[in-house]
Amino acid sequence: MAGNSATPGASVTGRALALVGAFDERHRRLTLTDLAARAGLPVTTAHRLVGELVAWGALRRTSSGDYVVGRRLWDVGMLAPVQTGLRDVASPHLHDLYGATHATVHLAVRDGVQVLYVDRLSGNASVPVVSTIGSRLPLHATGVGKVLLAHAPPAVQQEVLSGLTRITPYTVSQPGVLQRQLRAVLEEDHATTSEEMSLGACSVAVPVRAGGAVVAALGIVVPSLRKDAPRLVAALQVAAHGVGRSLTAAGGPA
After folding, report:
1. Are 203 and 222 in contact (CB under 8 A)?
2. Can you tell me the distance from the alpha carbon of 8 to that of 25, in angstroms, rounded to the nearest whole number?
3. Most buried of the four, 4, 129, 186, 194, by CB within 10 Å?
4. Pairing state of beta strands 191-194 and 136-138?
5. DSSP string for the chain
6. Could you read off the pLDDT tens digit of each residue along the chain, which spans 254 residues?
7. What b-and-e string marks burial along 62-77, b requiring 16 or more CB atoms within 10 Å of the CB?
C-alpha cells in the first residue's frame, strides 16, 4: 500500500526508485533533505527508505552525512546489456582507435533525447572533456549526439529541435542551423562540433552500424579539427566498421 508520498498511489518500490533517481550529473551528493525534496517524499519516509538502500549498498553515506550512489548499484548497472554486449564487443576497436589517435575516445548510444556514454578512453588531459561512462549529455551539442540524432526518428528530432539549449557561446541553438547540420551528417557520414559542449574541445564522430541499422556512435575529442579532420574521420570509420562487424557476428548490440 502506498505511503505518504507526494505522488498519490506511489508504491514502496516507486518511492525507493525515486530516491535513486534523484541523483544525476549535477547532483552526485545529496543531503537527506535534498533527497526527499527531489524524490517528492516526506523526510521521514525518505529517511526510512534511504536506510534500507544504504544497507543494501545502493546508496552510501559519506563522512559528512551526505549520500552518494553506492558501489553495488554500479555493479548491477554494469550488467545491463548495453554494457555487457556493446561495450565488450567494441572494446578492442576502441583501444586500436586510441592507439592511432591518442585522443579521448567515446562510444555512445541514444537514450531518449540524450546521448548515453557507454565507454570512454581518456586521451590528452589538456583537452576539457565533460563526459564520463554512464553520463548523459544533450544530443545537439556533441559529435556522437549529432550522429545519433541524425539517424533518430522524426519525433525525436522534433523534440530536440523544440528545446535547444545553449551550453557555450558556440552551441548550435537555432533549429534551422541544426537541421542543416543533420542533413550534412547523413550525406557525409560523420559529425563535428567545435567548442559546443565545452570550451577548448572539438569532436568528430561516425555511426556504428550493425545489421544495416545505426546502433551506436563512435567519437573522439581533440583540441582542434583544423588539420587532422580527414585523418581522424578515416580512423573512426575503420574502428566503427570493426565494431559493427563484431556486433553483427555476435548477433546484435545486446
Report:
1. yes
2. 28
3. 129
4. unpaired
5. ---S-SSTT--HHHHHHHHHTT-BTTBSSB-HHHHHHHHT--HHHHHHHHHHHHHHTSEEE-TTS-EEE-HHHHHHHTTSHIIIIIIHHHHHHHHHHHHHH-SEEEEEEEETTEEEEEEEE---TTS-----TT-EEEGGGSHHHHHHHHTS-HHHHHHHHTT---SSTTS---HHHHHHHHHHHHHHS-EEEESSSSTT-EEEEEEEEETTEEEEEEEEEES--TTTHHHHHHHHHHHHHHHHHHHHHHTS--
6. 333 344 545 688 999 999 999 998 788 899 999 999 999 999 999 999 999 999 999 999 999 999 999 988 877 876 666 555 788 889 999 999 999 988 999 999 998 999 999 999 987 666 778 888 888 899 999 999 999 999 999 999 999 999 999 999 999 999 999 999 999 999 999 999 999 999 999 999 999 998 889 999 999 999 988 888 899 999 999 999 999 998 888 766 55
7. eeeeebebbeebeeee
CB-based burial label for 160 (10 Å; 0-12, 13-18, 19+):
buried
Burial of 188 (0-12, 13-18, 19+ CB in 10 A): exposed
